[in-house]
Amino acid sequence: MKKSYLLKKIHISPPQVLSITFLITILFGAVLLYLPISTVDPISFLDALFTATSATTVTGLVVLSTGNDFTLFGQTVIMVLMQIGGLGLMTFAVLIVMLLGKKIGLRGRILIQQSFNQYSLGGMIRLVRTIFIFTFAIEFLAAVFLAIRWVPEHGWGVGLYTSIFHSVSAFNNAGFSLWDDSLMGYVGDPTVNIIITLLFITGGIGFTVLYDMWTTKDFRHLSLHSKIMLVGTLVVNIIAMLFLFVSEYSNMQTLGSLTLGDKLWASYFQAVTPRTAGFNSLDIGSMETGSIVLITLLMFIGAGSASTGSGIKLTTFFVILLVVAAHLNGKKEAVIFKRAIPSHLLERSLAIVFISMSAIFIGILILSYTESAPFEWIIFEAFSAFGTVGLSMGLTGELSSVGKLVIMALMFIGRIGPVTLAFALARQHREPVSHPKGDVFTG
Amino acid sequence: MKKSYLLKKIHISPPQVLSITFLITILFGAVLLYLPISTVDPISFLDALFTATSATTVTGLVVLSTGNDFTLFGQTVIMVLMQIGGLGLMTFAVLIVMLLGKKIGLRGRILIQQSFNQYSLGGMIRLVRTIFIFTFAIEFLAAVFLAIRWVPEHGWGVGLYTSIFHSVSAFNNAGFSLWDDSLMGYVGDPTVNIIITLLFITGGIGFTVLYDMWTTKDFRHLSLHSKIMLVGTLVVNIIAMLFLFVSEYSNMQTLGSLTLGDKLWASYFQAVTPRTAGFNSLDIGSMETGSIVLITLLMFIGAGSASTGSGIKLTTFFVILLVVAAHLNGKKEAVIFKRAIPSHLLERSLAIVFISMSAIFIGILILSYTESAPFEWIIFEAFSAFGTVGLSMGLTGELSSVGKLVIMALMFIGRIGPVTLAFALARQHREPVSHPKGDVFTG
Ligand SMILES: [K+]
Ligand SMILES: [K+]
């Protein structure tokens, strides 16, 4: 309690703590990456700062080759930054959700509160420990599976290290890979496809959903938020997979030259990676414009609240979609899983969408002056940076210095912004408890 | 009252009446334009339908040359369709505003109600007559001024006809020109610049604002809606003009080769035309990417409610901007001209933005498959069509058949959609009368 008393005294809000922590982490990381020990050849401080920002915001856009330009030490710094940025923000968001839980009242949150008793510092520490243990257990388990695939190929040392690096990168939705072509070398490999996607889907769905599933088991008794996240993830992924399968089927630079089995794996992988993992097993720059448009939308939508992923969040998207659909059908309120969506949720969701769009718009506007690249590259990269996705059509490798700063700003705002905004908006709203309405996290 | 009783019996809502009227007008216009008497050489029915849609939705995107492919008869049909589409929708919107006025209560609306007594059929007819007389008087006056410029250049017959055509096209924010390069031949001409822009700004600011100004005179006593429209138009136009002046200053294909005076005229013209007049005095396709991004935003924002212009509307944009700015400054509510913006207005505005963005997104997605053109052309043309602007980077002239259908759908939805949506949303909302809050039209 002493700490929060101190914070009150110097008037720092939780979002400010978050921003400052992230800034310090990034600066510290940049200094480490700038050390001669981190890179094969000397790099500019701007590139060190860019790499640290990309790693800490779990984006994965790179101006240097992670595998070839950085030493084992540099790569380890990147791995630690991803872990801090992914796991750290998730933990922060879960704590915020707990603290706000009293006011908003949501099954998942109450569950967590009851289990950990958030009013005590001990309860908080216990919760953080649980999140950490859960994360490291998942990452360890996944690394073992990946090692079964990669140790035979690369030998014990490199194989194990590669497995750990990609496991951490995937769970934290960071998208950093030790290979310059990301996972294109494993386009039809079942182990890599399954383990990597399971990792980032688990990390991206949000800890509250995982905790809810762990303690509830029965789908019908899950919180509304968990239900929307689970069904929404399934629906969006299936639609995206079918879309990309049809769209790229005869594109010889992507699916066209693959076997049917590999086509299916690649469609699946490219369908799930934009929200907001950022690995790729196909060349994004060679995809059809229509596929690029869909992927851009998916990058904007993003993962779940209180997760290692970013974006406006899947629940934000579904709240808007459901309310609009209800309006167009002439219904007075949107109902899902027998719960009505309260109007303040719509307002909050639309606000997150609008502010996110504005940030991306300003980014695109500046980049259109500083970069001489195809306009769709600029649009794609701005969405990728804001969603901390890391997919690229090629712009990031050719960025000007100002362009690098713009992309860094977008990554930072994209990682911190929606959480901060959701926190600020949720705190403003104090609804009477009597309403029989459902609540979900947004942002 | 007999008519509205009839409408009630067959369950047709005002927006449905509007849609059906527009569809019939477009079909009828297409048939007329398809007649051999309308064109120099035979045209396809699809092109006739496209032209009729573009004219009736006051867009101005063309697949044929208005001046060279159509005969005097065909051009007259186009002129009549523009007048019906522009003036017609404005009149419809004013009537809707009057009918809704009782529930929402706004100075401007109450003024109109008091003057015309909307509860009687006579009051309605009197209002419609006033709007019509006002429109024709403005168009006549402007045509006289234009004739002073164009009769000496083209002789009496062509000069007068050209003046009338462009006057009608400008007041209705239609953007059709008899010249294939629009008004590029008059880039530095004061008369053409002033008259044409005054026409479409007057037509685009909304009849309720004009009526409010006419009856009120003192700015301080204007309705909140009128104040936001007047100040907002000024602010947005000045910012856009400065932006384009700087952005294009040394672009040799646009401002670069012009004198300082012409540079200023051209910056002014291109700054005001995207919301949503659609004439151009510079080659849009040669502009800087940054200018294109700004123009795209302006096309999305659009003109005023109950006007001859389209888009999400300037008030919709400002409501969101003001509320977001207030939130970011930690204020509980957004205040402008001593009025608080009620939260339902924000929700309504965000809904209009979201649905508009969705329509444009789907349009872009389809066009990206059907057209083989630079992606920025597709984006620009989709926004131009939805905003019924008519500016083009070049795509419309090269559209495939499916592409034409998509652009037609966007023009239709863009012209009818926001009004319909605003109507539906406004009707849902019944606020207690006691609030000291301001109200503005959106959509
Ligand atoms: K990522
Ligand atoms: K127009």
UniProtKB/TrEMBL annotation, chains A, B:
It is found in: Cell membrane. The chain crosses the membrane at residues 20-37, 44-64, 76-100, 131-152, 191-214, 226-246, 289-306, 350-369, 375-393, 405-426. It is a multi-pass membrane protein. It holds the Pfam family TrkH. The keyword Transmembrane applies. Keywords: Cell membrane, Ion transport, Membrane, Potassium, Potassium transport, Transmembrane, Transmembrane helix, Transport. The keyword Metal-binding does not apply. This is TrkH family potassium uptake protein.
